[in-house]
Design goal:
about 45% helix; single chain; 3 helices; alpha+beta; about 110 residues; Alpha-Beta Plaits; globular
Length: about 110
């Protein structure tokens, strides 16, 4: 199982890229795979062979109309682990809560 973080942006379309980026996010959400969108990246979790076609479709949608596209892709490949989209954050939050109970970090 892999958690992917990606950002896809059309180049040369002006200052606002909200419309094409929204289309990419729609494609990710319609995939049915666990996902989350933040101000900088969209994260999606699944097997390589099921996630990469989603990222490809999102990239193609952003490039519709012949626009050049910038794609940044990062992957955390961790076989045998599922639910890491939320579990990774939960582990950090647990550490922060433990630090707060102990009166801060050392």
């Amino acid at each position: 199982m892999t958690v992917f973080a990606f950002s896809v942006t059309p180049l040369g379309v002006g200052e606002s890229v909200a419309d094409p980026v929204a289309e990419a996010v729609r494609i990710v959400r319609e995939s049915g795979l666990p996902n989350r969108t933040t101000a900088m990246f969209t994260e999606i979790e699944g097997e390589w062979d099921e996630v990469m076609p989603v990222i490809q479709r999102a990239t193609e949608a952003v490039g519709a109309g012949g626009h050049r596209v910038s794609l940044v892709l990062k992957a955390d490949v961790r076989p045998g682990h599922t639910g890491q989209l939320d579990a990774k954050i939960a582990r950090v939050e647990e550490r922060l809560a433990a630090d707060e109970m102990e009166g801060g970090h050392s």
